[in-house]
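#struct-pred
JK: can someone run the complex with iron/sulfur cluster? inputs below
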Amino acid sequence: MTTTRTADAGGRQLAMVLDLNKCLGCHTCTIACKKLWNRDAGAAYAYWNNVETQPGQGYPRRWQETGGRTATGAVKRGEIPDLDADYGRAWTFNHEQVRAQVGAGAHKPWLRPDAPPTWGPNWDEDHGAGEHPGTNHYFYLPRLCNHCTHPACLDACPRRAITKRGEDGIVLVDQDRCHGYRFCVEACPYKKVFFDPERGVANKCIFCLPRIEEGVAPACARQCPGRLRFVGYLDDPEGPIWKLVEKWKVALPLHPEYGLGPNVFYVPPVGPVAFDRAGRLVDDAPRIPGALLESLFGSRVHEALRIVRDERARRRRGEASELMDLLIAYDWNASFRLPAGTREVL
Ligand code: SF4
Ligand code: SF4
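RT: done, structure tokens with the ligand placed:
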């Protein structure tokens, strides 16, 4: 393994593309990740992968408003989200009470949180925006560490505890070096580094590194029933990432204006069209506002949406479309192209 503190080592970059047109909001990815990597007591509140509803406040609350870089490229001091108010402490439930009452008659207690919850990772799930009927809208945005080309977390760490691997660009925390200052938590504008208060160290997504080294896709991608996650190298012209990002230009980074060079990309959601008060569909009025999508994915989002719509239309006419074949993921195995050019065998 080669590691570097600088983001410009000239090595290759593993990346992920998520097609938001296919996300079900089922949270299988979140659970797959959580169960595999993130079960320590101090990480109970932490989700390396989460799925939030947009528009919405997200997880942690208001993450889009803090951190990042200044116009000159310097790391900006952001905020450390509050465990209760922003992340939401993991709820505990009356499991014992329910278990003790099993078979005890008609008045069995419901399973419920021990204390009334006030906030959590999915607090505003499916709330969305707009007016019903006609313009109400929302979509799901799964989020994980972007393994950025210019990681703010890495630059912010005075202990040099965060590294970016030269051979695949995966960003890792060395917990033996970490002193728990939390400058990385402040700096990451995506709020994808977490602090473990029990152990006093930072932790974050490792892109399922041990799986990657065995030629197996990350758990979030492998378990996704929507088949919407693609994994591979950015510079592999035979792989799905290069085709979606570079060739078809339909996969865009989240908040490119932060300037970190995210390596997780999204095919933006086309969404349904609006309908008027008489219930008639309005063909040229997309339900999800273009301004919302532009605020998340930048000005290129409109061209990406046009390409997806055009290719859908082409396919409906019975014509061939490489893009649609790729996005539909008929061949799920082709969604992953992993190290050494291997193709995962399922
Ligand atoms: S998303 Fe945040 S934690 Fe991940 S590499 Fe970028 S700056 Fe670091
Ligand atoms: S597992 Fe796939 S479909 Fe389900 S929420 Fe995650 S990304 Fe969306």
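RT: quick notes.
The first strand starts at residue 3 and ends at 4.
The first helix runs from residue 28 to 37.
JK: thanks, will look after standup
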